[in-house]
Amino acid sequence: MLKNVKEAYRESKKSTLIVYFILRTLVIISLIAQILHRNWDNVFLCVLTLILFLIPFIVDRRLKIELPNALEIIILLFIFSAEILGELQNFYGIFKHWDTMLHTINGFLCAAIGFSLVDIFNKSENVHINLSPIFVAVVAFCFSMTIGVLWEFFEFTGDQVFQMDMQKDTIVNSISSIHLNPEGKNKEYTIDDIDHTVIYHEDKNGNLVETTIEGGYLDLGIIDTMKDLIVNFIGAIVFSIIGYLYIKNRDEYQFAEKFIPRLKRNRDVK
């Protein structure tokens, strides 16, 4: 009986392993190419991606938490899309909504993880609590939003400390600020239909350099940050509703189990 369970488990993981080895091979090819071009920043990015690929397997084997195939594949594709396609292949620049898509998925995934943590405790015989479905859904939502906020803190730190551009800048055609008020009053002053912005600065040799930003004014990250949090909010809301309905009627909403990690029970898979 145990042998049949093991075989069924390994069979169910075949699709995940296929996706893992395909993505891993693509990353290794990219790694070799970056080494040949001596692009060490991208080499580090490829190595980091290979390490991140191991997280689902570590969670599965070390923490004894079973990740459903659909969730595991989405996590692997998410990592590949963010690091290799997004950063290495510049999909963030090529495709306007690439970053938005990933942050929406992140909100959904983190809500699923937060939901599973509470649901595991809810069903545990060792923990004497029984939380209502709405409370579990709210905790899942809050967990997802917390992860989203912490990530934005990370991006802000990278931009401020290491002069990166993780919070992608946005060209805007209108700005409103009290600092632009010609009378110095505490009332916003609006400039519309901005055509271009000119920036003057000195280079290392003390020469005056003029930089023109065509199309408007350069917003330094705030719009990108708020957009990321809003789509994270949407992803978190969607899964929290699914999780709530799942707890209320597990038989009717069994598809939710494809995204919910669970503790391994009576399974000795090596």
Which residues sit in consecutive blocks of at least 5 with pLDDT less than 50?
1-6, 266-270
SSE succession: HHHHEHHHHEEEEEEHE
| Total beta strand runs | 8
**Tell me, what's the shape?**
flat
Rounded radius of gyration (Å) = 24 Å
Major sheet description: 2 strands, antiparallel
Strand order of the largest sheet: 1-8
Structural class: mainly alpha
Helix share of residues?
Answer: 55-70%
Average residue-wise pLDDT: 86
Cα(first) to Cα(last) distance is 16 Å
Beta strand %: 5-15%
Counting structural domains, the number is: 3
Count every helix, treating DSSP H or I runs of 4 or more residues as helices.
Answer: 9
